[in-house]
Amino acid sequence: MKSSLQDVEPTDRPTGVVGAAPAGATDQQTAARAVQEMFGAIAPRYDLLNHVLSMNVDRLWWWRTTRKFDAILKNPAERVLDLCCGTGEMAFALERQAQGNAKIVGADFAHPMLFRAAAKSAKRGKVLSWIEADALQLPFAGESFGLVTSAFGFRNLADYDAGLWEILRVLRPGGECGILECSEPEGVFGKVYGFYFRQVLPKIGTALSGVQGPYSYLPASVERFPKPPEMLERMRAAGFREATWTPYTFGIASLYWGKK
Ligand SMILES: C[S@@+](CC[C@H](N)C(=O)[O-])C[C@H]1O[C@@H](n2cnc3c(N)ncnc32)[C@H](O)[C@@H]1O
Questions:
Q1: Closest ligand 1 atom to Cα of 163
Q2: CA angle, corner 213, sides to 211 and 214, nearest 5?
Q3: What is the CATH number of the domain that holds 86?
């Protein structure tokens, strides 16, 4: 199923700062610091937990996302930025699809996550660049990339609109953006999944990571994230010429696509 902005119910134009708000955060700075510390703390077991909690479907989502951008990835003149790259799995999936053509750069502000990405690419002999940077203040000139992706990272930004503006700034005209995010399905499946997501997943995550907090933050952050009609509104309001939403796996993940 694919839905464009024209297909969704009109909403009021969104206003005000909306972004991640981990427990205890009082403003954007403390929210960003809490997110950075949280991912730093779970970095050692992040990959294992990701695969266990998603039952390995995460690999399918990364791969589906890369296929959407095949033409850009197969162009040797293109540069691609994977924002909030974490331990690098989305960036590696982009690199596999690119087959040595587009140059891939991964960026994240949690050093322990990025350290693992860099170690994995050195071990696998991959040619990717890794940059420690805040997604809201990227150290790149305007119009540097033909594609910006973000897998399960955008939801953690302290200001979603500022995140979209920064993506637009670094995209060249005609460049594309793919934001892959967790989402909540509706209907009966949504109720069953909601039970797993809110009651079961936080317990498994906490037990396996040995860290209190991040796996309760996960469902709370997904609940807080704009629903597809609002997210598409925000993308259009930020300046994307086109914006669409594609649900993956009954809607437990979503790909937001935008074109500058
Ligand atoms: C759930 S992980 C996703 C990692 C990876 N993309 C994946 O698919 O497995 C979210 C990542 O976003 C990063 N992140 C959150 N806010 C960020 C920001 N403002 N700037 C840079 N990275 C950020 C975190 O450090 C974390 O590594």
A1: 19
A2: 85
A3: 3.40.50.150
Q: Is residue 17 part of a domain?
A: no
Q: Write out residues with Cβ below 6 Å of ligand 1.
A: 32, 35-36, 39, 50, 84-86, 89-90, 108-110, 113, 134-136, 151-153, 156-157
Structural domain containing residue 227: 3-7+23-259
Q: Ligand 1 centre and the CA of 153: distance in Å? A: 4
CA-nearest of 226, 221, 260 to 243 is: 260
* Residue 95 within any structural domain of the chain: yes
Judge contact between 133 and 105, C-beta under 8 A.
no
Report pLDDT for 107: 98
Residues of the chain by 3-state class (helix, strand, coil), percent to 5: 50, 20, 30
**Measured in angstroms, how far is the CA atom of residue 40 from the centroid of ligand 1?**
10
In a domain, 130, yes or no: yes
| 188 Cα–ligand 1 center, Å | 31
Which atom of ligand 1 is found nearest the CA of 36?
A: 25
d(CA 56, CA 201): 14
The residue length of the chain stands at 260
Per residue in 127-154, pLDDT (tens digit) is 899 999 999 999 999 999 999 999 999 9
The string of pLDDT tens digits covering residues 7-65 is: 333 344 445 678 988 888 888 999 999 999 999 999 999 998 888 888 889 999 999 99
DSSP element (H, E) containing 4: strand 3-4
- Tell me, what amino acid is at 79? R
- Count: domains in the chain: 1
Q: Check: CB of residue 88 under 8 Å from CB of residue 50.
A: no
First to last CA, the chain: 23
Cα–Cα distance, 35 to 218 (Å, whole number): 11
